[in-house]
Write a structure and sequence with these properties.
- This protein is mainly alpha-helical.
- It has one domain: Serine Threonine Protein Phosphatase 5, Tetratricopeptide repeat (Alpha Horseshoe).
- The chain is built from 14 helices and twelve strands.
- It has a two-stranded parallel ribbon with strand order 1-4.
- α10 runs antiparallel to α12 and α11 runs parallel beside α12.
- The longest helix has 26 residues.
- It is globular, with a radius of gyration of 22 Å.
- The relative contact order is 0.14.
Length: 470
Protein backbone atom coordinates (compact mmCIF):
# COMPACT_ATOMS: atom_id res chain seq x y z
CA UNK A 1 0.00 0.00 0.00
CA UNK A 2 1.29 3.43 -0.90
CA UNK A 3 1.79 5.73 2.07
CA UNK A 4 1.21 9.45 1.56
CA UNK A 5 3.79 11.23 3.69
CA UNK A 6 2.20 14.42 4.86
CA UNK A 7 2.95 15.20 8.47
CA UNK A 8 -0.12 15.54 10.62
CA UNK A 9 -0.59 18.39 10.90
CA UNK A 10 2.05 20.60 9.31
CA UNK A 11 0.21 23.68 10.50
CA UNK A 12 1.37 26.59 12.59
CA UNK A 13 0.61 25.96 16.24
CA UNK A 14 0.28 29.45 17.57
CA UNK A 15 -1.38 31.46 14.83
CA UNK A 16 -3.65 28.71 13.50
CA UNK A 17 -4.55 27.09 16.79
CA UNK A 18 -8.23 27.97 16.61
CA UNK A 19 -8.67 26.20 13.27
CA UNK A 20 -6.75 23.11 14.38
CA UNK A 21 -8.51 22.32 17.64
CA UNK A 22 -9.69 18.87 16.69
CA UNK A 23 -7.45 18.24 13.70
CA UNK A 24 -5.57 15.39 15.31
CA UNK A 25 -8.79 13.72 16.29
CA UNK A 26 -9.99 13.46 12.71
CA UNK A 27 -7.57 12.12 10.12
CA UNK A 28 -8.44 13.64 6.72
CA UNK A 29 -9.06 11.30 3.83
CA UNK A 30 -5.93 10.61 1.82
CA UNK A 31 -3.65 10.87 4.83
CA UNK A 32 -2.08 8.04 6.76
CA UNK A 33 -0.38 8.44 10.10
CA UNK A 34 3.05 6.74 10.03
CA UNK A 35 3.37 3.65 12.20
CA UNK A 36 6.78 2.26 11.21
CA UNK A 37 10.20 3.69 11.93
CA UNK A 38 10.99 3.70 8.19
CA UNK A 39 7.99 5.94 7.60
CA UNK A 40 9.10 8.41 10.27
CA UNK A 41 12.62 8.35 8.83
CA UNK A 42 11.24 9.35 5.43
CA UNK A 43 9.60 12.41 6.98
CA UNK A 44 13.11 13.76 7.53
CA UNK A 45 13.43 14.06 3.74
CA UNK A 46 10.63 16.62 3.54
CA UNK A 47 11.65 19.54 1.30
CA UNK A 48 10.05 21.93 3.78
CA UNK A 49 12.77 21.12 6.33
CA UNK A 50 15.74 22.49 4.37
CA UNK A 51 15.16 26.23 4.95
CA UNK A 52 16.30 27.97 8.13
CA UNK A 53 15.89 31.74 7.76
CA UNK A 54 14.60 34.47 5.49
CA UNK A 55 16.71 37.00 3.61
CA UNK A 56 14.90 40.02 5.07
CA UNK A 57 16.77 39.67 8.39
CA UNK A 58 19.82 41.02 6.56
CA UNK A 59 18.03 44.38 6.45
CA UNK A 60 18.61 44.82 10.20
CA UNK A 61 22.38 44.57 10.14
CA UNK A 62 25.23 46.77 8.98
CA UNK A 63 26.07 45.05 5.69
CA UNK A 64 23.49 46.61 3.37
CA UNK A 65 23.38 50.15 2.05
CA UNK A 66 19.81 51.36 1.48
CA UNK A 67 19.56 54.78 -0.21
CA UNK A 68 16.34 56.77 -0.28
CA UNK A 69 15.90 56.22 -3.99
CA UNK A 70 17.72 55.39 -7.22
CA UNK A 71 16.94 56.09 -10.84
CA UNK A 72 14.20 53.56 -11.46
CA UNK A 73 15.01 53.40 -15.14
CA UNK A 74 18.52 52.16 -14.47
CA UNK A 75 18.76 50.47 -11.10
CA UNK A 76 16.77 47.83 -9.27
CA UNK A 77 18.59 47.57 -5.94
CA UNK A 78 16.66 47.95 -2.69
CA UNK A 79 15.80 51.53 -1.65
CA UNK A 80 13.54 53.08 0.97
CA UNK A 81 11.15 54.12 -1.79
CA UNK A 82 10.78 50.74 -3.45
CA UNK A 83 10.75 48.59 -0.31
CA UNK A 84 7.53 46.88 0.67
CA UNK A 85 6.09 48.18 3.99
CA UNK A 86 7.36 45.22 6.02
CA UNK A 87 10.93 45.55 4.74
CA UNK A 88 10.90 49.28 5.41
CA UNK A 89 9.83 48.71 9.04
CA UNK A 90 12.52 46.06 9.45
CA UNK A 91 15.23 48.35 8.10
CA UNK A 92 14.13 51.30 10.26
CA UNK A 93 13.46 49.12 13.35
CA UNK A 94 9.78 50.13 13.44
CA UNK A 95 7.93 47.53 15.49
CA UNK A 96 5.89 45.52 14.93
CA UNK A 97 7.48 44.51 11.64
CA UNK A 98 4.27 42.80 10.52
CA UNK A 99 0.71 44.00 11.00
CA UNK A 100 -1.81 42.25 13.27
CA UNK A 101 -3.30 40.38 10.32
CA UNK A 102 0.00 39.38 8.72
CA UNK A 103 2.32 36.55 9.58
CA UNK A 104 6.06 36.49 10.09
CA UNK A 105 6.89 33.75 7.61
CA UNK A 106 10.21 32.95 9.32
CA UNK A 107 8.49 32.33 12.64
CA UNK A 108 5.63 30.38 11.09
CA UNK A 109 7.90 28.16 9.01
CA UNK A 110 10.20 27.42 11.95
CA UNK A 111 7.35 26.20 14.14
CA UNK A 112 6.00 24.08 11.31
CA UNK A 113 9.38 22.38 11.10
CA UNK A 114 9.54 22.01 14.88
CA UNK A 115 6.08 20.45 14.80
CA UNK A 116 7.33 17.93 12.25
CA UNK A 117 10.24 16.97 14.50
CA UNK A 118 7.98 16.79 17.55
CA UNK A 119 5.56 14.57 15.63
CA UNK A 120 8.41 12.24 14.73
CA UNK A 121 9.63 12.12 18.33
CA UNK A 122 6.13 11.42 19.63
CA UNK A 123 5.35 8.83 16.97
CA UNK A 124 8.57 6.92 17.50
CA UNK A 125 7.46 6.04 21.02
CA UNK A 126 4.98 3.55 19.58
CA UNK A 127 6.49 2.92 16.14
CA UNK A 128 7.41 -0.58 15.07
CA UNK A 129 10.86 -1.41 13.79
CA UNK A 130 14.48 -1.99 14.72
CA UNK A 131 15.40 -0.33 18.02
CA UNK A 132 18.73 0.91 16.69
CA UNK A 133 17.02 2.56 13.74
CA UNK A 134 14.45 4.12 16.06
CA UNK A 135 17.28 5.56 18.16
CA UNK A 136 19.00 6.97 15.05
CA UNK A 137 15.83 8.63 13.74
CA UNK A 138 15.09 10.01 17.20
CA UNK A 139 18.61 11.42 17.45
CA UNK A 140 18.26 13.17 14.10
CA UNK A 141 14.91 14.71 15.03
CA UNK A 142 16.34 15.93 18.36
CA UNK A 143 19.37 17.54 16.71
CA UNK A 144 17.20 19.15 14.03
CA UNK A 145 14.86 20.54 16.67
CA UNK A 146 17.84 21.88 18.61
CA UNK A 147 19.04 23.77 15.53
CA UNK A 148 15.58 25.26 14.98
CA UNK A 149 15.30 26.49 18.57
CA UNK A 150 18.88 27.77 18.52
CA UNK A 151 18.06 29.81 15.42
CA UNK A 152 14.76 31.08 16.82
CA UNK A 153 16.18 32.16 20.17
CA UNK A 154 19.09 33.82 18.37
CA UNK A 155 16.74 35.81 16.12
CA UNK A 156 13.87 36.64 18.48
CA UNK A 157 15.83 36.85 21.72
CA UNK A 158 18.60 39.15 22.93
CA UNK A 159 22.20 38.05 23.20
CA UNK A 160 22.66 35.38 25.84
CA UNK A 161 22.97 36.83 29.34
CA UNK A 162 24.02 34.20 31.88
CA UNK A 163 23.15 36.46 34.83
CA UNK A 164 19.59 37.14 33.71
CA UNK A 165 18.82 34.19 31.42
CA UNK A 166 16.24 32.81 33.84
CA UNK A 167 14.32 36.11 33.71
CA UNK A 168 14.48 36.96 29.99
CA UNK A 169 11.39 35.77 28.13
CA UNK A 170 12.01 34.64 24.56
CA UNK A 171 9.96 32.14 22.54
CA UNK A 172 7.47 29.35 23.08
CA UNK A 173 9.18 26.04 23.83
CA UNK A 174 7.18 23.09 22.52
CA UNK A 175 8.49 19.55 22.85
CA UNK A 176 5.49 17.51 21.74
CA UNK A 177 2.87 17.60 18.99
CA UNK A 178 -0.13 18.43 21.18
CA UNK A 179 -1.89 21.41 19.59
CA UNK A 180 -4.25 21.78 22.54
CA UNK A 181 -1.72 23.25 24.95
CA UNK A 182 -3.38 25.53 27.48
CA UNK A 183 -0.14 27.34 28.29
CA UNK A 184 1.97 28.56 25.39
CA UNK A 185 3.61 31.42 27.26
CA UNK A 186 7.18 32.31 26.31
CA UNK A 187 9.97 30.30 27.89
CA UNK A 188 12.97 31.94 29.49
CA UNK A 189 16.25 32.19 27.66
CA UNK A 190 17.70 29.72 30.15
CA UNK A 191 14.94 27.16 29.52
CA UNK A 192 15.36 27.32 25.75
CA UNK A 193 19.12 26.88 25.83
CA UNK A 194 18.84 24.07 28.38
CA UNK A 195 16.48 22.23 26.05
CA UNK A 196 18.84 22.78 23.11
CA UNK A 197 21.80 21.38 25.03
CA UNK A 198 19.77 18.46 26.40
CA UNK A 199 18.58 17.53 22.91
CA UNK A 200 22.12 17.65 21.54
CA UNK A 201 23.69 15.69 24.38
CA UNK A 202 21.16 12.91 23.86
CA UNK A 203 21.40 13.01 20.08
CA UNK A 204 25.11 13.24 19.30
CA UNK A 205 26.20 9.77 20.54
CA UNK A 206 23.47 8.18 18.39
CA UNK A 207 23.95 10.19 15.20
CA UNK A 208 25.58 8.43 12.22
CA UNK A 209 29.16 9.21 11.22
CA UNK A 210 27.90 9.98 7.71
CA UNK A 211 24.48 11.46 6.91
CA UNK A 212 21.78 9.27 5.42
CA UNK A 213 21.85 10.08 1.72
CA UNK A 214 23.40 13.55 1.71
CA UNK A 215 24.26 16.59 3.82
CA UNK A 216 20.65 17.75 4.08
CA UNK A 217 20.46 15.01 6.73
CA UNK A 218 22.09 15.01 10.13
CA UNK A 219 25.45 13.47 11.08
CA UNK A 220 27.68 13.32 14.13
CA UNK A 221 29.84 16.17 12.77
CA UNK A 222 26.68 18.25 12.31
CA UNK A 223 25.65 17.52 15.89
CA UNK A 224 29.02 18.70 17.17
CA UNK A 225 28.73 21.75 14.93
CA UNK A 226 25.32 22.72 16.30
CA UNK A 227 26.65 22.25 19.84
CA UNK A 228 29.64 24.47 19.00
CA UNK A 229 27.33 27.16 17.62
CA UNK A 230 25.05 26.93 20.68
CA UNK A 231 27.93 27.20 23.16
CA UNK A 232 29.42 30.05 21.11
CA UNK A 233 26.10 31.93 21.25
CA UNK A 234 26.09 31.36 25.02
CA UNK A 235 29.69 32.66 25.23
CA UNK A 236 30.78 29.33 26.70
CA UNK A 237 33.95 29.40 24.66
CA UNK A 238 35.62 26.34 26.19
CA UNK A 239 32.67 24.11 25.30
CA UNK A 240 32.36 25.72 21.88
CA UNK A 241 36.03 25.01 21.19
CA UNK A 242 35.76 21.35 22.19
CA UNK A 243 32.81 20.76 19.88
CA UNK A 244 34.17 22.77 16.95
CA UNK A 245 37.33 20.68 17.19
CA UNK A 246 35.31 17.46 17.18
CA UNK A 247 33.40 18.59 14.10
CA UNK A 248 36.66 19.44 12.30
CA UNK A 249 38.10 16.04 13.20
CA UNK A 250 35.31 14.53 11.10
CA UNK A 251 35.38 17.08 8.28
CA UNK A 252 37.99 19.82 7.81
CA UNK A 253 37.78 20.32 4.05
CA UNK A 254 37.81 23.77 2.47
CA UNK A 255 37.07 24.97 -1.05
CA UNK A 256 39.99 26.82 -2.64
CA UNK A 257 38.36 30.05 -3.79
CA UNK A 258 41.49 30.96 -5.75
CA UNK A 259 40.49 28.29 -8.26
CA UNK A 260 36.97 29.63 -8.78
CA UNK A 261 36.07 31.23 -12.10
CA UNK A 262 33.84 34.27 -12.59
CA UNK A 263 31.71 34.88 -15.69
CA UNK A 264 30.60 38.47 -15.16
CA UNK A 265 28.20 38.55 -18.07
CA UNK A 266 26.14 35.76 -16.49
CA UNK A 267 23.61 36.17 -13.70
CA UNK A 268 22.11 32.73 -13.02
CA UNK A 269 23.06 30.44 -10.15
CA UNK A 270 25.45 27.85 -11.57
CA UNK A 271 26.43 30.04 -14.52
CA UNK A 272 27.99 33.17 -13.02
CA UNK A 273 30.71 31.18 -11.24
CA UNK A 274 31.73 27.59 -10.64
CA UNK A 275 31.20 27.70 -6.88
CA UNK A 276 30.03 24.19 -5.93
CA UNK A 277 26.33 23.58 -5.43
CA UNK A 278 25.29 22.81 -1.84
CA UNK A 279 25.34 19.03 -2.30
CA UNK A 280 28.74 19.08 -4.01
CA UNK A 281 30.36 21.52 -1.60
CA UNK A 282 32.72 19.58 0.69
CA UNK A 283 32.57 22.40 3.27
CA UNK A 284 28.90 21.69 3.98
CA UNK A 285 28.51 19.46 7.02
CA UNK A 286 24.76 20.11 7.30
CA UNK A 287 22.87 22.03 4.62
CA UNK A 288 20.17 24.53 5.50
CA UNK A 289 19.22 27.33 3.12
CA UNK A 290 17.95 30.88 3.06
CA UNK A 291 14.40 31.52 1.91
CA UNK A 292 14.62 32.12 -1.00
CA UNK A 293 17.97 30.33 -1.37
CA UNK A 294 19.63 33.13 -3.37
CA UNK A 295 18.97 35.69 -0.61
CA UNK A 296 19.39 39.36 -1.52
CA UNK A 297 21.37 38.50 -4.66
CA UNK A 298 21.48 41.52 -7.06
CA UNK A 299 19.02 43.54 -4.94
CA UNK A 300 21.42 44.73 -2.22
CA UNK A 301 24.00 47.48 -2.31
CA UNK A 302 26.96 46.60 -0.10
CA UNK A 303 27.74 49.00 2.75
CA UNK A 304 31.00 50.90 2.49
CA UNK A 305 32.12 49.57 5.88
CA UNK A 306 31.95 46.04 4.49
CA UNK A 307 33.93 46.98 1.40
CA UNK A 308 36.71 48.37 3.59
CA UNK A 309 37.19 44.89 5.08
CA UNK A 310 38.71 43.77 1.79
CA UNK A 311 41.23 46.61 1.44
CA UNK A 312 44.82 45.59 0.79
CA UNK A 313 44.19 42.00 -0.32
CA UNK A 314 43.09 40.15 -3.44
CA UNK A 315 40.25 38.41 -1.64
CA UNK A 316 38.27 36.11 -3.89
CA UNK A 317 35.14 36.62 -1.79
CA UNK A 318 35.23 40.26 -2.86
CA UNK A 319 35.92 39.36 -6.50
CA UNK A 320 33.36 36.57 -6.85
CA UNK A 321 30.47 37.87 -4.74
CA UNK A 322 30.54 41.69 -5.10
CA UNK A 323 30.40 43.53 -8.41
CA UNK A 324 30.26 46.94 -10.09
CA UNK A 325 28.60 45.36 -13.13
CA UNK A 326 25.52 43.36 -12.14
CA UNK A 327 24.71 40.81 -14.84
CA UNK A 328 27.76 42.11 -16.64
CA UNK A 329 26.24 45.57 -17.14
CA UNK A 330 28.21 48.43 -15.52
CA UNK A 331 25.27 50.75 -16.22
CA UNK A 332 23.16 48.69 -13.81
CA UNK A 333 25.33 49.69 -10.84
CA UNK A 334 24.69 53.08 -9.20
CA UNK A 335 27.74 55.38 -9.33
CA UNK A 336 30.05 54.90 -6.38
CA UNK A 337 28.27 51.74 -5.22
CA UNK A 338 28.84 48.00 -5.45
CA UNK A 339 26.22 45.26 -5.70
CA UNK A 340 25.94 41.95 -3.87
CA UNK A 341 25.74 39.31 -6.63
CA UNK A 342 27.17 35.96 -5.54
CA UNK A 343 24.65 33.93 -7.58
CA UNK A 344 25.06 30.94 -5.27
CA UNK A 345 23.04 29.19 -2.57
CA UNK A 346 24.79 29.89 0.72
CA UNK A 347 24.57 27.41 3.57
CA UNK A 348 23.07 28.49 6.90
CA UNK A 349 23.60 25.05 8.40
CA UNK A 350 26.92 23.78 9.68
CA UNK A 351 30.06 24.25 7.61
CA UNK A 352 33.78 23.80 8.03
CA UNK A 353 34.55 27.56 7.69
CA UNK A 354 32.22 28.26 10.62
CA UNK A 355 33.95 25.60 12.70
CA UNK A 356 37.39 27.04 11.85
CA UNK A 357 36.24 30.52 12.86
CA UNK A 358 34.52 29.40 16.07
CA UNK A 359 37.62 27.41 17.00
CA UNK A 360 39.91 30.35 16.14
CA UNK A 361 37.90 32.82 18.21
CA UNK A 362 37.66 30.45 21.15
CA UNK A 363 41.40 29.73 21.02
CA UNK A 364 42.04 33.48 21.02
CA UNK A 365 39.75 33.96 24.02
CA UNK A 366 40.48 30.95 26.23
CA UNK A 367 43.21 28.92 24.56
CA UNK A 368 46.31 29.38 22.44
CA UNK A 369 46.80 32.56 20.43
CA UNK A 370 49.29 30.71 18.22
CA UNK A 371 46.67 28.10 17.41
CA UNK A 372 44.06 30.80 16.81
CA UNK A 373 46.38 32.41 14.26
CA UNK A 374 47.09 29.07 12.60
CA UNK A 375 43.38 28.34 12.15
CA UNK A 376 42.65 31.85 10.91
CA UNK A 377 45.52 31.91 8.43
CA UNK A 378 44.62 28.43 7.19
CA UNK A 379 41.14 29.60 6.19
CA UNK A 380 42.52 32.78 4.62
CA UNK A 381 44.93 30.72 2.51
CA UNK A 382 41.87 29.28 0.76
CA UNK A 383 40.26 32.67 0.20
CA UNK A 384 43.02 35.18 -0.65
CA UNK A 385 45.47 35.21 -3.54
CA UNK A 386 49.08 35.26 -2.25
CA UNK A 387 47.83 35.48 1.32
CA UNK A 388 50.30 37.01 3.73
CA UNK A 389 49.88 35.28 7.12
CA UNK A 390 48.59 37.54 9.84
CA UNK A 391 50.96 38.06 12.76
CA UNK A 392 49.12 39.42 15.78
CA UNK A 393 50.33 39.20 19.37
CA UNK A 394 47.68 41.32 21.09
CA UNK A 395 44.74 39.20 22.24
CA UNK A 396 42.08 41.86 21.64
CA UNK A 397 43.36 42.58 18.14
CA UNK A 398 43.45 38.87 17.36
CA UNK A 399 39.83 38.41 18.42
CA UNK A 400 38.91 41.42 16.29
CA UNK A 401 40.73 39.89 13.32
CA UNK A 402 38.69 36.70 13.70
CA UNK A 403 35.45 38.67 13.97
CA UNK A 404 36.31 40.61 10.81
CA UNK A 405 37.08 37.36 9.03
CA UNK A 406 33.75 35.98 10.16
CA UNK A 407 31.99 38.93 8.55
CA UNK A 408 33.91 38.50 5.29
CA UNK A 409 33.06 34.82 5.24
CA UNK A 410 29.36 35.10 6.11
CA UNK A 411 28.12 38.25 4.40
CA UNK A 412 24.35 38.40 3.87
CA UNK A 413 23.63 35.07 5.59
CA UNK A 414 20.28 36.00 7.10
CA UNK A 415 20.52 35.79 10.89
CA UNK A 416 24.29 35.19 11.08
CA UNK A 417 25.29 38.84 11.47
CA UNK A 418 22.64 39.95 13.97
CA UNK A 419 23.25 36.90 16.18
CA UNK A 420 26.97 37.68 16.21
CA UNK A 421 26.41 41.36 16.99
CA UNK A 422 23.97 40.55 19.81
CA UNK A 423 26.50 38.11 21.27
CA UNK A 424 29.07 40.92 21.38
CA UNK A 425 26.72 43.65 22.62
CA UNK A 426 27.86 43.50 26.25
CA UNK A 427 31.56 43.58 25.37
CA UNK A 428 32.78 47.19 24.96
CA UNK A 429 35.77 46.06 22.90
CA UNK A 430 33.61 44.47 20.22
CA UNK A 431 30.12 45.98 20.49
CA UNK A 432 28.82 47.62 17.30
CA UNK A 433 26.28 50.42 16.98
CA UNK A 434 24.27 49.99 13.77
CA UNK A 435 23.00 53.19 12.16
CA UNK A 436 20.47 53.39 9.33
CA UNK A 437 18.86 56.54 7.91
CA UNK A 438 15.27 57.38 7.04
CA UNK A 439 14.04 59.36 3.99
CA UNK A 440 14.90 62.67 5.66
CA UNK A 441 18.42 61.54 6.47
CA UNK A 442 17.69 61.17 10.18
CA UNK A 443 19.75 58.47 11.89
CA UNK A 444 17.92 55.40 13.18
CA UNK A 445 20.20 53.72 15.68
CA UNK A 446 20.39 50.20 17.06
CA UNK A 447 22.41 50.61 20.24
CA UNK A 448 24.11 47.60 21.85
CA UNK A 449 23.09 48.99 25.24
CA UNK A 450 19.40 48.52 24.40
CA UNK A 451 17.69 45.32 25.63
CA UNK A 452 16.00 45.11 22.21
CA UNK A 453 19.22 45.53 20.22
CA UNK A 454 18.72 43.82 16.83
CA UNK A 455 16.03 41.65 18.37
CA UNK A 456 13.36 40.67 15.85
CA UNK A 457 10.03 41.33 17.56
CA UNK A 458 7.66 38.44 17.97
CA UNK A 459 4.69 38.51 15.58
CA UNK A 460 1.72 40.61 16.71
CA UNK A 461 -0.53 37.54 16.41
CA UNK A 462 1.63 35.62 18.85
CA UNK A 463 1.82 38.50 21.33
CA UNK A 464 -1.97 38.87 21.18
CA UNK A 465 -2.39 35.14 21.77
CA UNK A 466 -0.11 35.25 24.81
CA UNK A 467 -1.91 38.31 26.15
CA UNK A 468 -5.23 36.51 25.78
CA UNK A 469 -3.86 33.60 27.82
CA UNK A 470 -3.11 35.78 30.84
Amino acid sequence: MKVIYKTLPLLLLLTLLSSCKDFLGNVPKGYQIPTKVEEYELLLNDDNLVKLSGKEIDLMADEINVPVTLDGNLYYQTTLRNMNPEWRRIYLYQTPFYGPDKSDTNYDAAYKRIFTYNSILTGLKTASGDEKEISCVRAEALACRALEYLTLVGIYGPGYDSEHASEIKTIALLTDNDINHKDLSPASQQEVYRQIIADLEEAIPLLPEKPVGNAYRMSKAAGYGIYARAAWQMKDYKTALVNARKALELNSELVDYKKLELHEEEWAVGARNNYPTPLLNPENILIRLLSPPEGLNIYALVSHSVLSLFDGTEDMRRKIFITDAPDGDPNACPPGELVWEPAIYFNLGISTPEMYLIAAECEARVGSTDEALRLLNHLRDYRIVDNKPLRISDKTELIRAVLDERQREFLFRGFFRIVDLKRRAQDPDFAVTVTHHDEQGNPVVASPSSPDYLRVPLPAKVLAFWEHQK
